[in-house]
Amino acid sequence: MKFLAATGNLHKIEEFRNILEPLGIEFVSPNEIGGIPDVEENGTTFEENASLKALETANFAKMKVFADDSGLEIEDLDNAPGIYSARYAEDNPGRIKRVLDELLEVEKKRGKIKRKARFVCVIAIAEPGKVLQVFRGEVYGTIIREPRGVGGFGYDPIFLPNGFEQTFSELTPEQKDSISHRGNALQKAVDYFIVKV
């Protein structure tokens, strides 16, 4: 089985491959087909944005497509940055700094806060003309005060998953994949891949 991964994020493609290629599911990167359209993510939910990307890319590439939309929701920030996680600042250090600064402001106003958060990943599978299925994965944790670790990407250095003493950036790729929001969504997709596609 072969899918086009509708993302330019090499970290995401690597996570997809690590989890699904042992099952015989092959991923083609956008570079291998000369690029894909830049889809406007104007949905109001992760599900809408993932479906938009998957369907538009499938129509363009004329093949089955695998797309995801993911982000960080922080309870004390009214679930921000949410669907705007990748657009919260110009780069990863800027996004992390903004989140930590905003949490500090809330803490100053309210006193003690819980810093509870979750990562969300929604995966949409589409073929030309049709979204076939959508899967949602989540992982819960807390936001620490200072970044730790050198692995992972995005907000990983400040996310401490429940039950662990290491941030996502400090876990091995295998450890992270086994508990992550993307890993959870992929596990839900596995049966679909094997039985339906």
Write a brief caption for the model.
With 197 residues, the chain is α/β, with parallel strands linked by helices. The protein has one domain: Maf protein. It has helices at residues 10-20, 46-61, 92-110, 173-179, 181-195, and strands spanning 2-5, 26-28, 65-74, 80-81, 116-127, 130-143, 159-161.
How is the secondary structure organized here?
Blueprint lengths: L1 E4 L4 H11 L5 E3 L17 H16 L3 E10 L5 E2 L10 H19 L5 E12 L2 E14 L15 E3 L11 H7 L1 H15 L2
Helix pairs in contact: 1-5, 4-5
> What is the CATH top level name?
Alpha Beta
Q: Could you please say which CATH topology applies here?
A: Maf protein
Q: What fraction of residues sit in β-strands?
A: 15-25%
Looking at the overall shape, the CATH architecture is: Alpha-Beta Complex
Domains, number:
1
Unreliable stretches (pLDDT < 50, length at least 5) are none
The string of secondary-structure elements, in order, is: EHEHEEHEEEHH
